[in-house]
Each structure stands twice: as structure tokens, then as C-alpha cells.
Amino acid sequence: MSLQVSDLKVYYRTLAGDVKALDGATFSIADKEIMGLAGESGCGKSTLGNSLIRLDGRMRYVGGSVNLDGNELPVWDNQGMNEFRFRDVSVIPQYAMSAMNPTRKIGTMTAELLESRGEKYREIKPELLRRIDLVGLDRDVLGRYPIELSGGMKQRMVMVISTLLDPSLLIADEITSALDVSTQRAVAETLVSFRDHGFVKSMIVITHDVSILYQTADTILIMYAGKLAEKAPTKTIIEGAMHPYTKMLISSLPEVGVRYANKKLSGIPGSPPSLLRPPVGCRFRARCPLAFDKCVEEPPFVKVARDHMAACWKVTGSDA
Amino acid sequence: MRRYFGRKLLTYTLTLFIAATIDWLIPRFMPGDPVYGLMSRMGNNSSPEAAKALSDYYYNLFGLNQPIWQQYLNFWGGLLHGDLGRSVFEHGQPVTDAIMAAVPYTLALLIPAILLSWWAGNSFGALAARRKWLDNTMLPVGYILTATPYMWLGIVLAFVFGFTLKMFPFANSYGLNLEPSFTWLFFTDLVAHWMLPFLSLFLVMFGGWAIGMRNMIIYELDADYSRYLEALGAPQRLVRKYAFRNAMLPQITGLALQLGVIVAGSLVTEIVFSYQGVGLLLFNAIKSEDYFLLQGIFLFVIVGVLAANFLVDIAYVIVDPRTRVGMRGGTA
Ligand SMILES: Nc1ncnc2c1ncn2[C@@H]1O[C@H](COP(=O)(O)OP(=O)(O)O)[C@@H](O)[C@H]1O
Ligand code: SF4
Ligand SMILES: [Mg+2]
């Protein structure tokens, strides 16, 4: 068992009160598993991803625990997490295009980052060059400034840097959103190859676009309004989703393999609830065509079949 | 790179030409006749014929009896030979000499004030960006300082430290009872007289740099590359180092933009403290309607500011790789 997250709660402090962006997440990821994390924008995917590596200033740890390879991650302690970052948990951020210091040569920045973490750049450099070859970049990118690279090149470089210390868990947040379709495919394939080469043990691939996960992810976790809705192997999510939200999300997409055309046409009617004062009971209730009396209580996220978890009274039975 | 500097050089040359022409025009549109002014200052006890002869002599000496276009050509001709004409106020002394006598004093004020305030302001601003209590005290003080006109701060300093506390003299560049010489006594006297005008320049600029730096650092610490480093567990030392270096870049551009203002500030400050630099010379030139001196001083200031700007441009290209890449044309 590589990653084990239990009842993790992370809120945003605002003047109006706490935004309950991640309100009790319990799930696990196995060794070698690439887990897709999907859901509409604003449902808390990035909050979950960030809380596993670094809480930014406005995020507040409320409760829960994260266990990676048998070690408890002190996610509430910014200093304490430093030791785990990069080596055990790493991230390819949403802003990969601007993640490198614009005024430093890429090689210099990489060297300074590694040395600051007590690693020897000289020892790591051969492997760094090998991986630069692997992602199809020129070795002389190390002597260049980020501005000299195209967006796709920068992204590949950040992918190489982030995984250089062979982290156990890699979080990739919306890394395909800013790219054109052919580049998206290449990036997705690179992610899988990183896992296959053993550069990373397991991975969380965050996206608001489920279709990108079809070729990439082994499993998919669907979130809705700060809560987990369903987790199952990719094939099951596509063909046999049980949660009404997942079903609507999947059917709102065009057929598997056909992206683009009219994608946005058939969305799910209505909009997600405010996370400042989320409704009691099932948070999907206001938009759920199957909602019934029981749904005023909160449905637990439980096993509904082998390797299949869901949080819905219709699935688990109202007397569960 | 060569093309970039070629273009810059062309811009600067053109600016200089236009500025010099305007500079030549302005005093000629000023009301009043400089020779008449000069002669009335010299006393009026000679006969009308003698006065006529003298004024003809002066008109001739200054070239004011020639047609205006000839005066303009003479201006450029002289300029190219380093001849700025003769001062009416300084009794026909060459303008170049009058300016050169004043320049050391102005530079002695300006250069330390610019460099020290830039250095101290940037260091202080960077420190304030991470110490809450310092930030809370520095920010209002900094804003008050930068918003203060140079002249006003000069007057306040002269009143408090000069007039009331009698810590420093607040008029002239050195004691009038002393002769300039290489003695310890003269040197200390020089420094004492230098102190208050220097301080008033230093303080105003210091506030501006400190605030600019503080805001830039806070901005850079929130930039994506900083967040990425932090997400990968880099120590604060490295994150701050990068943020500081990148925050410095706009401060260098800021220096180029501020130079003109700073020079103007030093001119005003010299007048407040009767400090015998270029500013005071300018003041006297205006009072006595001294065309050539006025022209020469403006020209000198223009050339100085342009040259300093050019230097800052070069420095910026050296420190910011992005400008270099832009010149080469990125490979992306
Ligand atoms: N800094 C913040 N302050 C307050 N609320 C925030 C902040 N960042 C995100 N949120 C809220 O938290 C929720 C989840 O955000 P996020 O995790 O970024 O969603 P996703 O990545 O799924 O689009 C959203 O409703 C958003 O409005
Ligand atoms: S619990 Fe009720 S409201 Fe929520 S998804 Fe299931 S049926 Fe719909
Ligand atoms: Mg997001």
C-alpha cells in the first residue's frame, strides 16, 4: 500500500468563513497505480493535490492523516514536510510553464535546487541527461534560459526535474490543460513511461477533463463539492459507474476517443453548491435526478464492489 | 546585440539633438536683455558713449549682434569644439570653466547619495519584506520620505540639525574663512558642509527604493518559480536568493527612470543649502539672465542624464538574461 489518506480535511480561511474545499477524503493508492482525479472545476482537486505536498498560506489543515510507504506525512507542518518533498512526494504544478526561475539557466537552477536539498549535482547529472534524452529534449537545454524553450519543452523539463529524485508519489495538476491535443497525448504518454521506468512509484493525475485519463490512468477518483464521490478502475468508471454524478459526468462527454466537437454542449444542469456553507446530506442532492428522502443524510464513501468505492444512498441502499 | 546598442545610441543621439536645440531656444525667449542686466549690475556711472561702446563690446563678445540662425549655427559649431560660449554673469569667463568648477561639488553630492540610497534602500526593503515589525514601521516612514519634496526635506534638516541643534553647518560648501587646501581641517569642514544636503537627497531616495524593493520581493516570493521551489522543499535561503535577484532587476530600470528626477532634486537641494554645485550656478544664471551659462548647464545636465541612462541600459542587459535572449531571438 503506497499512499493511504484518512479523513483528510483542508479548508480555506476567508473573511466570510471557512471554505470547506476538502471535507474528509479517505482513499488509498497502490504501488504502480496511476490514479486520475477528476471532477468539475472548483470541486477541490487541487486542494487535495496540494495538501499532500504543500499547503499554501490560506489553506488550513483541519484534520485527517496521510501515510506514504508506512511513514506519516506531517502535512500540517510546512517545515517538517520539507524532508519528504521532492524525495518522497513531488509535484508537476499546474503552472509548469512558469515554474522555472526566468533569470537562471535551467541547468544552474537544477543544480542549485539539488544542492540545496543536500544532493550532489555531479552524481545526478548523468541520469538527468538520460532523462532529458528520454523526453526528447536537447541536452543543451541545461545551458538555456526558460524563455528560450517552447511551452511544451518547458513542461517536459519540469517533468524531468520534478521526478529526478525518484519520488514515491507524483502529483500532476492539470498539466495538459494548456496544451494542444497532440501535445496532451505526448505528455500523458510520458507520464505513463515515467511510471514504467520506475521514476515514480505511483501518481495522481488531476484534471477536469476525464477523457484525458482514458489512456493514462489505472483508476479514477471522482470528486464532487469537496467530497469523494466514486473511485474505481478506469474501465469501470467509463462503462459501469454507479454514482449518479459520475454517470452524468461520463455521459456528458462525447464517445470515448472522440474529443472536442460539442464537448461542452451537454453539461450537467445546475451548478455545484457553495463550499462556504455546503448543504447538509449528499452535496449532489440539488442536481441529482435520483435524490430521495435518505439523501438529507450524508452518504458514506464505502466499498460497493471489488476495487470500487462510492458515496451514494442509491448505490449502497438506504438501510446501509 | 550590436543592433540593439546601435538603435539605443541613435535614440540617445536624436534625444540629445532635440534637447540641445530646445535648450538653445528657451533662454532666447526669456524676457529681458542680458547685456543690459550685466551693465546695470556693473554700475551706471559712465557716459552714454562709453556705455554704448561697452555694450557693443559685450554684444560682440557674446555674438548677440548676429542674426538668430547664425547664432544657432555658432552654438553647434562651438559645441562640437567643447566651447559653450562665455558667461555674462561670471564676467565673460568661459561657460565650460564655470561649470567645471561646480561639477565636483554636485557629483560629490549625487554619486554617494544615489549609490548609498540605492544600496541601503534595497537591502532595507528586502529585510522589511520578511520582518513583520520592520515592515509595519518602515512602510509608513518610507512612504512619507518618498512623498517629501527634496527642497522641503532640505529645509527641515537645515532647521533641525543646522539651525536648532547646530550639529552641522547649513550653508555653503565650506567655511568662508577657509581657503581650499589639502589639509585635514579643510577636509573635515568640507564633509560637515556636505552632510545635510547629502542627507536630504539620501533620505528621499532611500524611502523610494526601500518601498519599491519591499513590494517587488513580496511579489517575487509569490511568483510561480518561488512556489515550485518551495513545493520541492528548497530551503528559504534559496527561495529568497532567487526572489531578491529577480526583484533587483526592476530596481535597475527604476534607477534609469529616476536619474532625471534625482538630478533635479540635487539642483534644488544645492539652492536650499547654497551649496556651490551646478544647481546653485543654475540658480544664479537664471537670476542674471545669463543665456550661455544657462544653456551650458542645461546641456551639461542633459548629457549627464543621458549618459547615465545609457550606462544603466548596458548594466541591465548584463544582469537580465531575458533581454539578451530577446535580442538574439529565442529558439522557441
Ligand atoms: N485561496 C482560496 N481562498 C478561498 N477559497 C478558495 C481558494 N482557493 C480555492 N478556493 C475554493 O476551494 C474550492 C476548491 O478549489 P480547487 O481545489 O482549486 O478546485 P479544483 O482544483 O477542483 O478546480 C473552490 O470552490 C474554490 O473556490
Ligand atoms: S446520495 Fe442521493 S442525492 Fe446523492 S447522489 Fe446518491 S441518490 Fe443522488
Ligand atoms: Mg485545480
Question: Which short descriptors sum up this protein?
Answer:
heterodimer, A: 320 residues, alpha/beta, Rossmann fold, eight-stranded mixed beta sheet, four-stranded antiparallel beta sheet, 9 helices, 12 strands, 26% helix, 24% strand, globular, B: 332 residues, mainly alpha, MetI-like fold, 2 domains, 78% helix, binds adenosine-5'-diphosphate, binds iron/sulfur cluster, binds magnesium ion
Q: What would you call the structural class of chain B?
A: mainly alpha
For the residues shown, what is the average pLDDT of chain A? 91
Query: What's the CATH C level of the largest domain in chain B?
Result: Mainly Alpha
Q: Which ranges of chain B are low-confidence, i.e. pLDDT below 50, for 5 or more consecutive residues?
A: none
The shape of chain A is globular
Distance between the ends of chain A: 27 Å
The CATH superfamily of the largest domain in chain B is identified as: MetI-like
Radius of gyration of chain A, whole Å: 20 Å
Taking all Cα atoms into account, the compactness measure Rg of chain B is 25 Å
- The percent range for strand residues of chain A is 15-25%
